[in-house]
Specification:
The chain is of the alpha/beta class. The protein has helices at about 20-30, 45-55, 70-85, 110-135, 155-175, 195-200, 205-210, 220-230, and strands at about 10-15, 35-40, 60-65, 90-95, 140-145, 180-185, 240-245. α2 links the parallel β2 (about 35-40) and β3. It is globular and about 50 Å long.
């Protein structure tokens, strides 16, 4: 099997200028895809990533300013990507800020920010790009959920990431047979451990201890799974969510 099975395909990864999104963009580029990298604030990081991808793959890539949580933002994104690349064959809905503010203390503004960027953005992007996949006869959509979907104390983030799992299953029914729709739910990512400590100082230690494998997942590991879901090995897989968390979600009594 060729490692460049996405050769000739275009991939769009939302929120991909840095962190997990950037790792996914790199992995899809390695598999042969032209990648559209979206950003809201990190323009320099996005353009540096696109330059890096161009140098390592020999293929042209694209950095796009886009607020995917709004209709206008997605409309501009669609216009830009279609002008440069035409169609989108692979959509990875990765954008998604975190919050674990208790519901009774959560502001309406933060509810909207977390929900719209995690869930509404995925809906808007699917609505924009799925028809083209159907017309082309082939498409891959991967939604990035999270280990928080299996918890009940991460507030609006739990709600949003749980919704993406249900959304994935519903879309698999809607968009087959041309397009597969799957999700990945990473647990605590090693490279983001310091960020999580600002929200919950003992979370990393607890989740590592709770996992049968006694470790955290890495961005590269998640990115490789996302890429494989877009490849021929998973042609017959749709509507599933793959937890990538070293088993930390498994309940104990």
């Amino acid at each position: 099997m060729s490692s460049t099975y996405l050769g000739g395909k275009t991939a769009l990864v939302t929120g991909s200028s840095r962190n997990l999104g950037a790792a996914i963009a790199r992995e899809l580029g390695r598999r042969g895809a032209r990648v559209a990298v979206t950003y809201r604030e990190s323009e320099q990081a996005a353009r540096s990533l696109v330059d890096e991808l161009g140098e390592t793959t020999g293929v042209d890539h694209l950095a796009v300013l886009a607020d995917v949580s709004t209709e206008d933002g997605v409309r501009v994104l669609v216009e830009t990507v279609q002008e440069v690349f035409g169609t989108v064959d692979v959509l990875v809905n990765n954008a998604g800020p975190f919050s674990m503010e208790p519901f009774v203390e959560l502001s309406v503004e933060d509810w909207d920010r977390i929900w719209d960027t995690n869930v509404k953005a995925a809906y808007l992007c699917v609505k924009a790009f799925a028809p083209g996949m159907r017309e082309a006869g082939w498409g891959r959509i991967v939604n990035i959920s999270a280990g928080s979907a299996y918890l009940r104390n991460h507030s609006i983030y739990t709600l949003a990431k749980s919704a993406l799992i249900t959304f994935t299953e519903a879309l698999a029914l809607e968009l087959g047979p041309e397009t597969t729709v799957n999700a990945v739910a990473p647990g605590q990512i090693a490279e983001s451990a310091e960020d999580m400590a600002h929200f919950d100082p003992t979370f990393v230690e607890r989740t590592t201890e709770a996992s049968p494998l006694k470790r955290l997942v890495t961005r590269g590991e998640v990115a490789r799974i996302v890429a494989e879901l877009c490849g021929p090995m998973f042609d017959m897989v749709t509507g599933v969510t793959i937890p990538v968390d070293a088993g930390s979600r498994l309940p104990r009594f």
